[in-house]
Amino acid sequence: MPTQLEQMAKDRDEALLSLNKGKILAYCRKYGIPLPGNETAFWAGVHKSIIVLNAATKAQKERSVLWLAEHGFTTEIE
Q1: Which pLDDT does position 58 carry in this prediction?
Q2: pLDDT tens digits, 27-77
Q3: Phi, psi of 73, rounded to the nearest 5 degrees
Q4: What was the pLDDT predicted at 7?
Q5: Would you give the end-to-end CA distance of the chain in angstroms?
Q6: CA dist 63 → 27, 30, 54, 69 (Å)
Q7: Choosing a second label site near 35 at 20 to 30 A (CA), which of 12, 26, 54, 78?
Q8: 3-state secondary structure string, the chain?
């Protein structure tokens, strides 16, 4: 049985990599993660998170880097 931290990481990876807003919002509610009020900032946060996930494939990371560039964001996490 996974620890609570392992389950949280598994849930995070599944939600973020799905790129399904409903799943991501449900994950954030479940774990009390605050969300930005701006839609573009929300997706930027999702894509910035994906590029540092060990579970993300090279293609998934590249897609997120491209999304960030197309929307005027860097890959830096501040």
Answers
A1: 98
A2: 999 999 999 999 999 999 999 999 999 999 999 999 999 999 999 999 998
A3: -110, 155
A4: 95
A5: 34
A6: 22, 27, 15, 10
A7: 54
A8: CCCHHHHHHHHHHHHHHHCCHHHHHHHHHHHCCCCCCCHHHHHHHHHHHHCCCCCCCHHHHHHHHHHHHHCCCCCCCC
Q: Looking at the chain, how many residues does it have?
A: 78
d(C-alpha 49, C-alpha 17), whole Å: 10
Residue 46 in tokens: 């999702």
For 67, the token pair is 């999304």
What the block records as the tokens of 12 is 């995070």
